[in-house]
Amino acid sequence: MALDVYFRHDVANNISSIACAMLSSAAASGGQNVEYCRGIVDTVRSQAMSFGIEWGEMSASLSKALVDARRADLAHSLLGANPE
Hints:
The protein is mostly helical and 84 residues long. The chain has one domain (8-79). It contains four helices and no strands. The longest helix has 21 residues, at 8-28.
Protein backbone atom coordinates (compact mmCIF):
# COMPACT_ATOMS: atom_id res chain seq x y z
CA MET A 1 0.00 0.00 0.00
CA ALA A 2 1.46 3.36 -1.07
CA LEU A 3 1.73 6.28 1.29
CA ASP A 4 -0.33 9.39 0.61
CA VAL A 5 1.59 12.64 0.81
CA TYR A 6 -0.08 15.76 2.13
CA PHE A 7 1.37 19.23 2.20
CA ARG A 8 1.24 21.23 5.41
CA HIS A 9 -1.04 23.91 3.91
CA ASP A 10 -3.46 21.18 2.79
CA VAL A 11 -3.62 19.83 6.34
CA ALA A 12 -4.07 23.36 7.73
CA ASN A 13 -6.89 24.04 5.26
CA ASN A 14 -8.59 20.79 6.19
CA ILE A 15 -8.41 21.47 9.93
CA SER A 16 -9.63 25.06 9.54
CA SER A 17 -12.52 24.09 7.25
CA ILE A 18 -13.83 21.57 9.77
CA ALA A 19 -13.42 24.03 12.65
CA CYS A 20 -15.14 26.75 10.63
CA ALA A 21 -18.11 24.48 10.01
CA MET A 22 -18.31 23.51 13.69
CA LEU A 23 -18.10 27.11 14.90
CA SER A 24 -20.57 28.41 12.33
CA SER A 25 -22.99 25.63 13.19
CA ALA A 26 -22.74 26.36 16.90
CA ALA A 27 -23.40 30.06 16.27
CA ALA A 28 -26.23 29.44 13.80
CA SER A 29 -28.09 27.21 16.24
CA GLY A 30 -28.11 30.05 18.74
CA GLY A 31 -25.43 28.47 20.84
CA GLN A 32 -24.22 30.84 23.49
CA ASN A 33 -21.75 28.38 24.98
CA VAL A 34 -18.47 30.24 24.67
CA GLU A 35 -16.61 27.42 26.39
CA TYR A 36 -17.75 24.98 23.70
CA CYS A 37 -16.41 27.30 20.99
CA ARG A 38 -13.16 27.78 22.88
CA GLY A 39 -12.93 24.00 23.09
CA ILE A 40 -13.14 23.83 19.31
CA VAL A 41 -10.29 26.36 19.05
CA ASP A 42 -8.25 24.35 21.58
CA THR A 43 -8.85 21.23 19.48
CA VAL A 44 -7.67 23.07 16.37
CA ARG A 45 -4.55 24.19 18.22
CA SER A 46 -3.74 20.63 19.29
CA GLN A 47 -4.35 19.25 15.80
CA ALA A 48 -2.05 21.90 14.35
CA MET A 49 0.64 21.01 16.87
CA SER A 50 0.37 17.33 16.00
CA PHE A 51 1.17 18.15 12.36
CA GLY A 52 3.91 20.66 13.19
CA ILE A 53 1.84 23.63 12.06
CA GLU A 54 2.62 26.87 13.90
CA TRP A 55 -0.37 28.36 15.75
CA GLY A 56 0.08 31.72 13.97
CA GLU A 57 -0.28 30.01 10.61
CA MET A 58 -3.22 27.92 11.80
CA SER A 59 -5.10 30.78 13.43
CA ALA A 60 -4.61 32.89 10.30
CA SER A 61 -6.03 30.07 8.19
CA LEU A 62 -9.01 29.64 10.52
CA SER A 63 -9.60 33.41 10.69
CA LYS A 64 -9.64 33.62 6.90
CA ALA A 65 -12.07 30.69 6.66
CA LEU A 66 -14.39 32.31 9.21
CA VAL A 67 -14.26 35.69 7.45
CA ASP A 68 -14.96 33.98 4.11
CA ALA A 69 -17.95 32.26 5.74
CA ARG A 70 -19.21 35.67 6.89
CA ARG A 71 -18.42 34.82 10.52
CA ALA A 72 -15.86 37.57 11.16
CA ASP A 73 -17.54 38.05 14.54
CA LEU A 74 -16.34 34.59 15.57
CA ALA A 75 -12.84 35.22 14.20
CA HIS A 76 -12.63 38.39 16.24
CA SER A 77 -14.09 37.06 19.49
CA LEU A 78 -12.34 33.68 19.55
CA LEU A 79 -9.05 34.40 17.82
CA GLY A 80 -8.68 38.14 18.32
CA ALA A 81 -8.47 38.51 14.56
CA ASN A 82 -9.29 41.71 12.77
CA PRO A 83 -12.66 41.06 11.11
CA GLU A 84 -11.80 43.11 8.01
